[in-house]
Specification:
Distance between the termini: 35 Å
Shape: globular
Strand order of the largest sheet: 1-9-8-11-12-13-10
Number of helices: 4
Order of helices and strands: HEEEEEEEEEHHEEEEH
Largest sheet: 7 strands, antiparallel
Helix content: under 10%
Radius of gyration: 16 Å
Number of strands: 13
Length: about 260
């Protein structure tokens, strides 16, 4: 039912809400990305990282999203880390993954997974990866350390190269503004509660009417508010399904543990 990673054991989907198409929701004829989002540039989001894997079913290698939080450190979703370390590559500056243009690339030196993470409740869905080749002179994305930044009504933006459900070109960096619906919205969903949604560690954002959402391949990608990393894409039911918003892993409750990794 869950996950927004690239290909997790066949049954797990990485996204937030259903499987809507452009015709289903009349999203228009302009270039839509994520699901119902718009094109983004690597200039506006230089810290956006595409995490590829050599065993991906996608020809581009697309696997998950990530964010550069130090020249040699990126943060992604813990549930993305299911393959050998040597199969991952971090790519910065390539808006279209199917176009092998010049970009900064690095293999992975080490992986840290938050000790509070487990696949039962999906909380603390964070992994910090140390790069073999630091991405110097690239702006980093600061961490949001204030828990009060998770406020109902604010509208952060999610970035990723994931599935678009036919609302735009695949493997291309997109963005989508997703309203923070407040924890009560996801806690009112029994399926989400059963899967481990917790107000203390998760963030509920998206559109209850469906049609717009992060999706498969966006896992670990950044949710950004006021120039800071508010959360990362974690899980949800399907992609852009009505009544099933996105569940994000909130940074602030895990900030101290993540910051400790930046010192290593």
């Amino acid at each position: 039912m869950l996950k927004r990673a690239a290909v997790i054991a066949g049954a797990l989907l990485l996204a937030t809400a259903g499987a809507a198409t452009a015709s289903d929701h009349k999203l228009g004829s302009d270039h839509k990305l994520i699901v119902g989002g718009t094109l983004a540039s690597t200039t506006e989001a230089p810290w956006a990282i595409a995490l590829t894997n050599s065993s991906s079913a996608e020809s581009s290698g697309r696997w998950c999203g990530a964010a550069l939080i130090k020249a040699n450190k990126i943060i992604t979703a813990a549930h993305c880390m299911i393959k050998p370390i040597g199969t991952y590559t971090a790519i910065q500056g390539r808006p279209d993954l199917s176009n092998p243009t010049a970009a900064r690339m690095s293999t992975i030196k080490s992986i840290w997974i938050h000790p509070g993470y487990n696949r039962t409740d999906n909380r603390y869905d964070f992994a910090v990866l140390t790069l073999n080749r630091p991405m110097t002179n690239v702006p980093i994305l600061p961490l949001e350390t204030n828990p009060k930044a998770d406020r109902k009504g604010v509208v952060p933006t999610v970035y990723g190269w994931g599935d678009t459900q036919n609302t735009g070109p695949a493997d291309t960096l997109g963005k989508l503004a997703v309203p923070n619906l407040g924890d009560s919205t996801c806690l009112a969903n029994k399926e989400y509660v059963d899967m481990g949604y917790a107000a203390a560690t998760n963030l509920c954002a998206g559109y209850l009417d469906g049609g717009r959402d992060a999706c498969q391949g966006d896992s670990g990608g950044p949710l950004v508010l006021n120039g800071r990393l508010l959360a990362t894409v974690s899980w949800g039911k399907g992609c852009a399904e009505r009544g099933y918003p996105g569940v994000y892993a909130q940074i602030a409750p895990a900030a101290k543990a993540i910051q400790a990794q930046l010192l290593r």
